């Protein structure tokens, strides 16, 4: 009988809950299971390895002189775009007005860069670009002589493909004015400056040279230029 009672007590026995232990002692067991093994918030710093972002310079303030100049240049390109859009609609008065604004704004940007010690970053290509647009619209608006005068001012500082384009434009204006010898002179200088990696542009110049030669009855020269194209 005693043995049976002892057996029943053994069957009903349960181990004491660890939750009760925490509750009575008032000390909670650390929840180490919530943290991944070996995890650190900055493993590179722990390993003594520098991040690639450590060497990046601090971001310049948004109102810095350089960023202000960059924003002004964006406005210049918008004015050039609006000017050429007006010219495509044959609204040359509006077109010249927009390009005039772009030229004035470019001068303002150059002065701004000079006054803030950024003279080395003056965008000379942008200056040439604005004046080229001015001359182009002058030619389209029936002012070819004024366009030639504008080109003469900027051709002295241009180089490479830009110089070739200016000479090509001057050749076209002279050809349309019936000044075929002057046109040929400019076309020759244009093809001399045109880079070899622009073959289609060089072919276009040669084609216009052939047309000027035909106007001057220089047949063999015209044939030679056509052979260059082929």
Structure description:
The protein is mainly α. Among the domains are: 64-143; 159-229, Tetratricopeptide repeat domain (Serine Threonine Protein Phosphatase 5, Tetratricopeptide repeat, Alpha Horseshoe), CATH 1.25.40. It contains 11 helices and no strands. The model has no long low-confidence stretch (mean pLDDT 83). One of its GO terms (biological process) is non-motile cilium assembly. TPR repeats lie at residues 164-197. GO terms for molecular function: kinesin binding. One of its GO terms (cellular component) is non-motile cilium.
Q: How do the helices and strands line up, and which of them pair or pack?
A:
Elements: H1 2-11, H2 18-25, H3 43-47, H4 65-88, H5 92-115, H6 124-140, H7 144-154, H8 160-176, H9 180-193, H10 199-215, H11 219-229
TPR repeats: 164-197
InterPro entries: TPR-like_helical_dom_sf, TPR_rpt
GO cellular component, one term: centriole
Radius of gyration: 39 Å
The coarse silhouette is elongated
What proportion strand?
under 5%
Low-confidence stretches: none
Taking the sheet with the most strands, its summary is:
none
Distance between the termini: 122 Å
| Structural class assignment | mainly alpha
Estimate the helix proportion, in percent. 55-70%
Beta-strand segment tally: 0
Average pLDDT number = 83
């Amino acid at each position: 009988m005693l043995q049976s009672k002892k057996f029943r007590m053994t069957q009903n026995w349960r181990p004491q809950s660890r939750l009760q232990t925490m509750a009575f002692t008032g000390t909670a067991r650390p929840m180490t299971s919530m943290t991944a093994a070996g995890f650190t918030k900055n493993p590179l710093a722990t390993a003594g390895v520098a991040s690639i972002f450590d060497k990046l310079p601090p971001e310049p303030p948004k109102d810095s002189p350089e960023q202000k100049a960059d924003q002004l240049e964006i406005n210049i390109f918008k004015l050039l775009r609006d000017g050429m859009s007006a010219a495509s609609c044959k609204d040359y008065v509006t077109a010249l007005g927009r390009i005039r604004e772009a030229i004035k704004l470019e001068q303002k940007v150059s002065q701004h860069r000079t006054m803030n010690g950024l003279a080395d970053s003056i965008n000379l290509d942008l200056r040439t670009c604005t004046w080229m647009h001015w001359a182009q619209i002058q030619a389209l608006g029936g002012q070819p002589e004024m366009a030639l005068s504008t080109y003469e001012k900027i051709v002295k500082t241009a180089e490479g493909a830009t110089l070739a384009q200016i000479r090509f434009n001057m050749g076209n204006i002279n050809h349309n004015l019936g000044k075929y010898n002057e046109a040929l002179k400019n076309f020759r200088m244009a093809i001399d400056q045109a880079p070899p990696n622009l073959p289609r542009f060089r072919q276009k110049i040669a084609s216009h040279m052939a047309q000027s030669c035909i106007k001057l009855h220089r047949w063999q020269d015209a044939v030679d230029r056509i052979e260059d194209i082929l």
